[in-house]
Amino acid sequence: MFKYILLLLQILTIVKSQLTPTVRTLHDTVLIDKKLYIFGGFHAPAPNSTIESEYNLNPDDRFFYLDVSKPFDTSSLPWTPIPNNEKDLPLNFLSSIITGGVSASIGGVNNDTIYFINNERDKTLPPVLTFSTKDNLWHSIFQQSILGDRPIGRNQIRPITDYNGKIHLLTGFSFVTLQGVTRNQGGIIVFDTINFSCVVKDADISRLEYSATLLPNGIIVYMGGKTSDGRADTDNFRIVYLYNTTDNTWKPQPTTGDIPAGDHGTSSVLGLDGFRIIVFGGLNSGNKLLYVLDTRTFNWYEPNVSGKNPTIKRFDHSANVIGKYMVIAFGSGSDLDFSYRSNSESDVLLLDIGNSSNYVWTNYFDPNAVIPPQTTSLPTDSNSTQYNDNSNNNKKNNNNNINPGVIVGVVIGVIGIICIISLSIFYYVRRRKTGKGIYEKAIPTPSNSENIIPIPSDLELTYGRK
Description:
The protein is an alpha+beta fold. Helices cover 15% and strands 27% of the residues. The chain contains 6 helices and 31 strands. The strands form 8 sheets. Strands 10-16-15-12-11 form a 5-stranded mixed sheet, with no helix packed on it. A 5-stranded mixed sheet has the order 21-25-24-23-22, with no helix packed on it. Strands 26-30-29-28-27 form a 5-stranded mixed sheet, with no helix packed on it. Strand 29 (348-352) and strand 30 (359-362) form a beta hairpin. It is globular, with a radius of gyration of 27 Å. It starts with a helix and ends in a 32-residue tail after the last helix.
């Protein structure tokens, strides 16, 4: 009898641990340690306090993660609840959906913390809350602990964390700074997650629901989006904006090729080669599902794609690069159309981007899939923005691209010089002692086949989002 009770308890535990999240748009996703954390979002056309209260009745539906440490099929997604979430999730300290929601991004010294940045509507809330993924603990960061301005986030902002732990939040709305300055054209807010400081800087553009992609040289590429009154600029892909996170400079960059029409609610990720930006979805029915922008030439093109296309083009979704996959989560069609579920389509779409000459829609995720070698040859044009070395962050990436053959040659050369000097000294000493000079037996020299420790050359191309 006891065995049957124990078995029943185990079954109940398994059932409880299996999540079936509701559909959603304008949610945040952050990838940390093989877990894709998902927070917030909504599916009602006009969220109000009553609807949001209903959302919050199920904390495990507000904050959870997709376990990407193991293989899965998109028909059976490994959604996982966060331990003690029902008790610990501080929903009362996070900005509500009806006020604009929050922005969430990775940060901290070890890149193992999620930073939730509240909006400016409720001044009683702490500007920032953190969630430690190591121990599942929440902490509040109040304004007195932040040097400088008050950080502001919203669910229509696409936060980008740079290589120095600073979260960049491009705004598309007016707000008042902590010093009482009204910024009608918005700006870009930079929050340092390591030193807990914040500054508000001028920006060349003011948008919401845009796409943002961090390049290896520390430049953020902004494209798409809409104004605060809901208008999408018809040229928001024809001209993309480059923001240098090192020297705080902006550059409008014209593009060529098969340019997408103006749109918002799209997503963008950096391809595995480090220079192709892959754009998916959006609201404009005239655009195709996928576009690629080559940042060496800033030329747009439609990629070759095989596999079964999604039935509905989604907008206000999320996208992250995990292994060799572009992982697209949730989103909707126009007018909050979530009919993709009735078409037996998963909440998660997988695009295999391992081969840049042919992307593949797939239903299977393999965390151990081998990433094919990528073409990373640099353009000869010194004016190429992608690879101008105008950032200290480039030094690490440039070191990673050192030719291993050069390294081996240098090491062998140094060993040879040391051997020659050692032999010369040895013969000189022997000659003085014995008078036999060079007729002594030679000292064996080290073989050129000694093991040489290779210099690592891995380039991390998966960034904190959304």
